[in-house]
Write a structure and sequence with these properties.
It is built from five helices and six strands; from the N terminus they run E-H-H-E-H-E-H-E-H-E-E. It is α/β, with parallel strands linked by helices. It has a six-stranded mixed sheet, sandwiched between helices. Helix 2 runs parallel beside helix 3. The two termini are about 30 Å apart.
Amino acid sequence: MSIIFVRHGETLLNVARTLQPADTPLSPTGLAQAQAVARRLAGMGIGGIVSSDLPRARTTAQAIANATGLPVRETPLLQERNFGDLRGRSYDSLGYNPLDMEEAPPGGESAAVFFDRVAQAFDDAVRHRHTLSAPLVVVTHGLVIHALLQRHLHVAGPHAVPVRMGNTSLTVCDALPPHGVSLVDCTGHLSGAVVDKAASLSGG
């Protein structure tokens, strides 16, 4: 009864540590990462794919769809937190950490609104998984997966909540309570020129 959460592939703005507009596409490296995670998931016998409707996630999900023959169901519930007027700004130039801010930036979401949306997305994914006979893949964003690990999944034993989520990393949980995790932030499918860049921004 597994759910496999996948962060989208790399974007140029991830590498530039910039808060991203909604329409940010994958970089060439991100496209190659999407192909790599698709090959990995194609060997795992998955039964469904649901994705954020933002282009960087949707393109990652489409690579998985192409490798598995499965359709993609899109939902805005899985979008990254909306940072409003901060999108397009350099993270390092702000002088504070917008990823941790409780209040809503101008034109954006507060932490409370974001966490409520993530809760809805998780409930939706669990319901979807129960309609399938094989694992569900959920393609989404760094802050969404981080919020799931902190608030909805049972992280214990050798696992811990990472500071950042790698591009196309896999996080696997049980769809049944208490939603224990068996894999966190795994990028074992990436190597060489497409390895995840640890200094890139994870979220926003």
